[in-house]
Amino acid sequence: MTKAQGGCRVRFLIGDPDSEVTAARGTEEGVPLTLSTRIAVTLSELEKLRDVPRIEGRFETGHVNLSVFRFDDEMIVTPILARRAGHDSPMMHLRRRQADGMFDRFAAHVEELWSRGRGIWSPDAQA
Predict the structure, then answer these.
(1) What's the pTM value of the predicted model, to 2 decimals?
(2) How far is CA 112 from the centre of its chain?
(3) At residue 73, what are phi and psi to the nearest 5 degrees?
(4) Residue 20 near residue 43, CB atoms below 8 Å
(5) In 16-100, at which residue ranges do the beta strands (DSSP E only) sit?
């Protein structure tokens, strides 16, 4: 919240807890704390930030196999492995060193997912 209040744009793109893709992923993980439940906990925390300027949230219904945390020209990427929960997957620290490198490819992928998302707080909201 402090970063957003200081002018930083903060975006959360999360899987739709009610989508078939999320349900299938939760079944595949096979852990007691389902993906839908973990998303519900996240949504509960995000609700506290609903009215903070520059904090945005969207659901993405077709892709729940990636976690990305981006900070300017650096990002932490966790490609979620089949039949594993996120905490059992590898984490990569990427830095932007060149145009169209690995960093830019992941960034473009996330932007594509963001563009297809629907608003968490207003379902019809688009960028």
Answers:
(1) 0.81
(2) 12
(3) -100, 25
(4) no
(5) 55-60, 66-71, 74-79, 92-95
Beta bridge partners, 27, equal none
Rounded Cα gap, residues 23 and 41, in angstroms: 16
**Helix, strand or coil for residue 69?**
strand
Nearest-angstrom CA–CA distance, 18 and 41: 14
Taking the C-alpha atoms of residue 76 and residue 56, their distance in angstroms, rounded to an integer, is 19
- Show the tokens assigned to 124: 């019809």
Domain residue ranges in the chain? 2-119
The CATH number that domain 2-119 falls under is 3.30.870
CA distance 114 to 59: 8
Alpha-carbon distance 70 to 85, whole Å?
A: 21
Per-residue pLDDT tens over the stretch 8-44: 899 999 988 888 888 888 888 888 888 888 889 999 9
